[in-house]
Amino acid sequence: MGMHCVCVCRVSDSKKKRLEKKEKKGKVKPSKSKSSSVNGSTNDVNGLAVEVEEELGLNDRSTTGVLTSHPQSRDIHFESFTLLFHGHELLQDSKLELNYGRRYGLLGPNGCGKSTLLKALGAREVDIPEHIDIYFLDREIAASDMTALEAVMSVDAERTKLEKEAEYLMNKEGPEVEARMEDIYERLDALESDMAEVRAASILHGLGFDKEMQAKKTRDFSGGWRMRISLARALFVEPTFLILDEPTNHLDLEACVWLEDTLKKWKRILLLVSHSQDFLNGVCTNIIHMHQKKLNYYSGMFVDVRSRCEKGGCGGDANFSLSSARRINRVLHLLKKLLLERLASDS
Q1: What is the per-residue pLDDT across 70-97, written as a single tens digit (0 to 9) for each?
Q2: 108-144: per-residue pLDDT in tens?
């Protein structure tokens, strides 16, 4: 029988209370804006606005759910999952099921709340077990004097958290605990090994950074390139639960192909939104369709799921052309093959 834990979270209220306590103690510090380049100034302002919104609890999201997966499990299961935004119900009494080792593509019409759902999960607005570390890629890396390579490898907080969790689990027993311990040691080895710098450099190279760019200070990059650094750091850390919202937006075709080839090997939980049908086809093992305030789950490739949607099986969009998608996929498949051959020859 699964463990049930009721979670009702209204993040804005809780964050306001924490902020009030800080004010009483005189510990609230004024927000510091990031230094910006000409090209990155707009992104810096947006990032600062997000930070202020999160600190003051101004997001107007309300998320509730009942945890049904085992507290020690690496899977994330919620029943009666409900999501509201500005009082508007985006999801009502739905199921949220994210299994370890699966890569999920989130689909739905514009305005249905896909990005709001990602933000709610990234902010832990439901009681996701603490041992499941989450990396939600929602902003670029801070502009600083660290080089791109140093920024990717700056993982002291993640390393400390993993070490503390390993210490906590030492006296625990059971298959779930053993699986978690194995994963923790694997990740610690990857972060601390002599090859860590080589791995970080390889990730940056795949995202378009040559050696000279890797040694460049992050404050000298535009917002788009700093977003690539943030993505590289997420891939380097290898979190248990990685959330990506349109990860290909700042990438050229060659970097998109490299990222697709990397993510399709992701061994943990991946949840992403992407406008690229071919990218979803290449990466995802499962599709989640956000429709009529419910989350509907399908296994298989994106095109197969959309085929079912076209036939009325999941409320598909009428303007989607399956034959056009297949033609586009064939062309992109050939381009990817050529680019992967080129990347292999360069390495």
Answers
A1: 888 999 999 999 999 999 999 999 999 9
A2: 998 899 999 999 999 999 999 988 999 999 889 999 9
Domain residue ranges of the chain, discontinuous segments joined by +: 5-346
On whether the 5-346 domain is CATH 3.40.50.150, my answer is no
Euclidean distance between CA atoms 176 and 108, whole angstroms: 33
- The reported pTM is 0.72
- Give the 3-state DSSP-derived string for the chain, with helices as H, strands as E and coil as C: CCCCEEEEECHHHHHHHHHHHHHHHCCCCCCCCCCCCCCCHHHHHHHHHHHHHHHHCCCCEEEEEEECCCCCCCCEEEEEEEEEECCEEEEEEEEEEECCCCEEEEECCCCCCHHHHHHHHHCCCCCCCCCCCEEEECCCCCCCCCEHHHHHHCCHHHHHHHHHHHHHHCCCCCHHHHHHHHHHHHHHHHHHCCCHHHHHHHHHHHCCCCHHHHCCEHHHCCHHHHHHHHHHHHHHHCCCEEEEECCCCCCCHHHHHHHHHHHCCCCCEEEEECCCHHHHHHHCCEEEEEECCEEEEEECCHHHHHHHHHCCCCCCCCCCCHHHHHHHHHHHHHHHHHHHHHHHHHC
Q: Do 11 and 123 meet the contact criterion of CB atoms below 8 Å apart?
A: yes
The first and second tokens of residue 157, run together, are 């907080």
